[in-house]
Amino acid sequence: MKNRLFMTVLIALLIGPVQAQDLLIPMDDSQSDHLKAYGVTFWSLNRSIDVDWLLNYRGGSFLISRTPEVENELRVRGVRYEVLNGSQTAAVISEVESDASNTSVVRLEKPPKIAVYAPDQTLPWDDAVLLALTYAEVPYDMIYDDQVLAGDLEDYDWLHLHHEDFTGQYGKFFNYRSAPWYIEQQRQAEISARKHGYRKVSDFKREVVQVIREYVGGGGFLFAMCSGTDTFDIALAAQGTDIVPMEYDGDPIDPDALASLDFSETFAFTDFRPSFNSREYEHSNIDSGPPPPQLRNPAVDYFTLFEFSAKYDQVPTMLTQNHVPTVKGFIGQTTNFIKTLIKPGVVILAEAPGRGEVRYLHGTFGEGTFTFYGGHDPEDYQHFVGDPATDLNLHKHSPGYRLILNNILFPAAKKKKQKT
Amino acid sequence: MLYIRPFAFLIALSLSVSLSTVSSAQSVDSTQVGRFQLAESFMRSGQFQRAISLLEDLYQDSPNTHVFYERLREAYESVKRYDDAILLIDRKIQQDASPVVYITDKARLLFLKGDEAGSKATWQLAIDSNVTSSSVYLMVYRSLMQVRLFDFAIEVLEQGRDNLGNASLFQTDLAQLYNLTSQHGKAVSQYLELLKINQNQLNYVRSQMSPFLTSDEALDKSISVAEEGVATVPLNRAFRELLAWLYVEDGQFRSALDVYRAIDRLEREEGRLLFTFAQIAADGAAYDVALEAFDEVLRRYPDGSSAPDALRGLGLMQEMWAETLGEQVFDIAGNRLERNHYDEALDTYQRFLIDHPQHPHFPDVLRRIGVLHQDIFFDYTAASTVLTEVITRYPQTMTANQAAYDLGRMAITENRLGDARIQFSRLLTRLRTGELADLARYELALLHFYKGEFEATDGFTRAMQENTSTDVANDAIAMKVMLIENRGPDSLDVPLRKFARTSLLIRQRKWETALHQLEDLEAEIGLHALSDDVLFSKAGLQARTGAIDAAIQSYLELPLVHEGSFLSARSLFEAGSLQETHLGDTDTAIRTFERILTEYPGSLMVKETRAEIRRLRGDEV
Prior knowledge:
The complex is a heterodimer of chains A (420) and B (621). By secondary structure, chain A is an alpha+beta fold. Chain A contains 13 helices and 15 strands. In chain A, the strands form two sheets. In chain A, strands 6, 7, 8, 9, 10, 11, 12, 13, 14 and 15 form a ten-stranded mixed β-sheet that branches. Chain A has a five-stranded antiparallel β-sheet with strand order 4-1-3-2-5, with helices on both faces. By secondary structure, chain B is mostly helical. Chain B has 33 helices and no strands. The longest helix of chain B has 19 residues, at 307-325.
């Protein structure tokens, strides 16, 4: 009798943990679609299903409770997963939380509300973040200057900027000034500026960056790519002066423009010099420009991701999750940031080795954070005006695009108390 | 800012001296030239303050030297010393008898300084100084364009028109301004006025309008005004052509056709314009409109130069349309369905033969008739007659080779396998390479297959799969795999031979006979390697003969009985498709498709399956 009771209890104990199951979405080379994996994670969060992000474990894998809906969605989206029973999950968690390994668990709880800052107008270049969000099926709203100045940013947790020009120089596409899209872009910007009481677009854009700055200071998350990075800081530094050549705003630059720059206002960069040449396709010396000719080749150009302590530096660790330690390079209007012009206190996440150039950085401002990522399109080495958009169906494992998508998940992370 | 070279400077300097309005001209000595050159170099290097010091002295010494004034004003502007620049201009205004250009410059500087009200008042002052001079309005307009005050520029030019009593002034400038300010309707009005005066400006007008027609709103407004223009001046050809062009830009091909029709009639184009438009409509996939345009040409100008091409084009459009709509001539039971676009295409081609017996397109049209008879109407006698005529009358042409290929195919359908072999062999000998040769080679492989000559089949497939860039390479590889997997276990390959014969029956459209044979074969061979192919073919035939439920059943049975078969996933896919299209049961179809993802996650069908599930779920991907 006693034996029978003992066996029953033993069996019940064994069945219990074995039946509890989780789904592990590996993010190493075994994954069939890395980019859609982020989308399914986001989809789960939208349905109040918590997800554990296993930092540095098999490329930054995700662990979700197994439900028929999640499993079906993973299959339908073509994302590879593994079913773990209770004891297997426990083993994984134990391994990840072990002090001996540079891994940790971050609980993702609430999906961030995402705003993408972009004009309505169709412009003749692709936007890597829009492409990533669309491919991964992560929902977002499009906003622009009117909404920013109307205070709509407060409704969002995360703001993305891509190929924008906050200096009011229309991207410095002087050679395209007769193109219909340029004429339309300029016209719309002028109408917006006038509507808000500004004679010049550059003055109008300065107000926009101030509002975004306040948004970040108040706790917002900002991600910027390509020219959205340096022009943001240039516009902040030039609040009290005119750095725009007359070809763009009708009047010359201020004679003491350089001396009037205020670097205390900027997020990431300092002591830089804007470009006053209207025909130069650079906004400042923050950008290193394309690599030297011998490296200007997608086969040899790359940048290296830094490794951080997953247990103590969770934010940079989240931002650099990837299945490869080096990522192939890609050029943009702003490609890499000159290291000597980066403010101390800004965390460097990736750099082009041996060149003093930083590709990817992160910092805090007030209650919020910002992340800047150089280059235009991680899967198009040099994207020109008029080129077709990248088809991410052909780049499901893109490490460069993973860095973008890391940024949309990290605001969902539950803030964990540091170990003391 | 202009930086002129020394030589050019000297010319400018001497010109400015000679053009000076002050009666007592002051001479410019060499020291002044030297100092001016130095000032120029300071300007070029951005040392504006140093340049200003020199230029102020020069101007003080020689206030009537225009170039000193000009450079000094530019220098002040470069450092945003607008007040100083304005003072300088004010002095010029007082001195000059005709100071309009200075007044407009002052207005511009006031605007840059931020005094918008003052600037507008000053521009108005410039106009008021001579309201009857068109060049004054143009000067003010150019000044306003420099600071991109387009709305005010429009007001100025419109004011000019009123004051001068000439509504045809400043047409192109106003049109450009209206486009820049999104007043596209008004822009078109101006262009119509221009075309009223000179119809030859149509290309210019189109080139000016094109960059601004990027939105639906721009097109709608432009079209609306152009329509009014045509209604008001119906005999202006340029108006109509502009309207037609706008309709095409907006995808309104039918409306464009009406316009071209009218032009054709009014201008006695004899169908040339309509024929060109028909081709544009075809390129724009507006087949029904293209068809109508071709028809129009034929009705009105049966003897015109465009008639033969139009007739052939009409036939092609009708065929294309039938194909797009998936039209059939017979139902499943073999009953003739009502007349459709294929019938019309056939009639059109036959009319071509009668009307244009010597035309270069004659052989091609003749062959198309043959192919229609063969593949659409299944009238093999008529097809044979026609195709043979092509070969006889036009030997050693590509059309004849294509006709020979079609005859070979028909021979297979009529069970004249020997004739088919001869046709394809001769074709292969003549051509040796090219797409048609590859197709002939594949047909020969199939002939061997149907006759159970599997070694020969294998030989042909090996040769074809060497060049994987050809279309038939895939088919050859599939055939090869079929042989590898399904020959044996007996030395005579009996099951595969029977299956091959059934394949021939299917090709010959003997559905019922083929189905019975497959059912017999299925019963005979049990779990032979071929059994999944047999079941899959059977399911296909059941679907073709209208037994949908049975077909779905067979497709669903295959993965149950033949779990490891590569046809399992495809069977489930076919079953899901039938459940959706024929039974209208979306939920069941989704569940069937989902089985592919769970049971056959490595299948080649997975990508298509996911797309189908997303589509049926209504996901916006």
